[in-house]
Amino acid sequence: MAQQFKYTLPVAETQWKFPAAGEVAFTWDYDARSEDLLRLYAKGKQEQWDAEARIDWSLPVDPEDPMQMDDQVVPLFGTPIWHKLSGKQRTELRYHSQVFNLSQFLHGEQGALVCAARIVQDVPRIESKFYAATQVMDEARHVEAYRRLLSEKFRFAYPISRPLKTLLEQALGDPRWDFTYLGMQVLIEGLALVAFQRIRDYSKNTLCRQVNAYVMQDEARHVAFGRLALRDYYPELTDAERREREEFVIEGSYHLRDRFNSPEMWDRLGFDAKEVLQTLQNAEGQIRFRKRLFSRIVPTVRDIGLWSERVQKAYTELGGIQYASTNAQEMLDHDAKVAEEFDRKMREGFAVAPK
Ligand SMILES: [Fe+2]
Ligand SMILES: [Fe+2]
Fold it and tell me: What is the CATH number for 126?
């Protein structure tokens, strides 16, 4: 695989380094306390897969519109700005918005790889170290898959967005081990499930759908991991300590909402970013998407016990409060089933039709 990874904007640094805080935790207590986590670890081992073999990389994509999504998902669709765009400008916007999102998936996956490795080191319990070790391998595979999709099937990539960078820095910069989980397993991966799902369920390109279905099968386990590990830990904390976690979740959720603003993309495309962001506030498709953004995060935040009035108020403002009564496990089980269905259809040798 010799290809060159091209960025459409200058990447200011060729690497990103910052001091990590934290403690290395060994345990001499090899007795596992959580049967649920051990079961999840067993599943993590059994469900390992090879991105090279399981995905059919020879599947073609339309060079101008690789994901082939309905225009309703293109930001600005249906707004006065959209109506003024020429066909060529719409094609360009469609393409860039796909590349922008996919690039954030790729950088987020690298973040997940680093976070999972960090958890192996910091988390006190043996069964969590076991599980996190399987996640390290999963995340390497995800970086591999998105890197390949981007560099083989798209023409360029975008650098990491500022909100994602800030959230990663906060999750990894805090010395307390559970903040890595909050930033990654609860927030970033919870949001990723929604973004991946949109492609898995609505793209008309089989390769794009397949990559996202398989990655989601793993992500569903990762979100479950965060839930199980923190659900046992948070009742042990004092009210003041729990409040700090709630603050982190609230602030992080606002960063996640902003992650879709992509001012750098609007600049790159020659739009007035300020005007576009204002228009997007009231764009119907964006309002619908923003409402769904927190559908995977809210049930987890409630389950792990960070459900104070302040948190509920924040999700009311962010538009995700209606998911408080959603059964998170049912959704995660469904993700696993969809991936298995893909396997079956690929084995049978016919293209998987979108819903
Ligand atoms: Fe991942
Ligand atoms: Fe993950």
Answer: 1.10.620.20
Distance (Å) from CA 101 to ligand 1 centroid: 14
User: DSSP secondary-structure letter at 20?
Assistant: -
Can you give the pTM of this predicted structure?
Answer: 0.93
Cα 112 to ligand 1 centre (Å) = 6
Domain that holds residue 103: 37-347
pLDDT on residue 32:
87
Residues 6+ apart with CB under 8 A from 294: 190, 191, 253, 315, 318, 319, 320, 323
Measured CA to CA, the distance from residue 355 to residue 352 in angstroms comes to 9
pLDDT for residue 1:
45
pLDDT in tens, 329-343: 888 888 888 998 888
**Distance from the CA of 90 to the center of ligand 2, in angstroms?**
32
Q: Which residues contact 351 (CB under 8 A, 6 or more apart)?
A: 206
Structural domains counted in the chain: 1
**List of long-range contacts for 195-199, beta carbons under 8 Å, 24+ apart:** 195/101, 195/105, 196/105, 197/335, 198/69, 198/73, 198/289, 199/67, 199/69
Task: For residue 277, report the distance from its CA to the centre of ligand 2, in Å.
Answer: 29
Structure tokens at 185: 């397993």
Confirm whether 104 is domain-assigned: yes
Q: Give dist(CA 244, CA 179) in Å, integer.
A: 10
Pick the closest to residue 303 from 224, 196, 241, 189 (CA basis).
Answer: 224
